[in-house]
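Our preliminary data section would be incomplete without showing what the modeling component actually yields. Below, a chain of 135 amino acids is followed by its predicted structure, encoded as tokens that our downstream tools consume directly.
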Amino acid sequence: MTLNYEANVRRAASSAKGSQLHPAATMDSAMAFIIIGFILCGNFIYLTNARRGPFCTPCRSLEECNQEPNEVCVWGESRDNCGRRECAKGPGQRCGGPINVYGNCAENLMCKSDERCHGCTELSDANFLCYPNEY
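Predicted structure:
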């Protein structure tokens, strides 16, 4: 009877070994889960810290929204996603981008898929600047 009991214990132990996960497989799964978590957290931080976007804070007052930009606006002004004044982009300058972080084009210009302002705009009396220069 003792031999039969010991054989059953050995058989149970060997079958239990086969059903256990290898430690390396468990570690790989945990590492993948951690990496995915870091990627998701990084994307959230990027979106919330972007210069503007869907997570920006709206103006607290009309004065804040109408505050002049810190630089001279050669191409005029536009409003960002939060309603604040900003300098518009000129021909060939970078625009658009994820959640429009690179800004808006000046009047008569269009932001295209290459993230550049395309079209022509007037510099002064009858002087135009165009991008691309094929216009």
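The radius of gyration is 30 Å. Helices lie at 2-19, 23-49, 62-65. Preliminary results of this kind motivate Aim 1 of the renewal.
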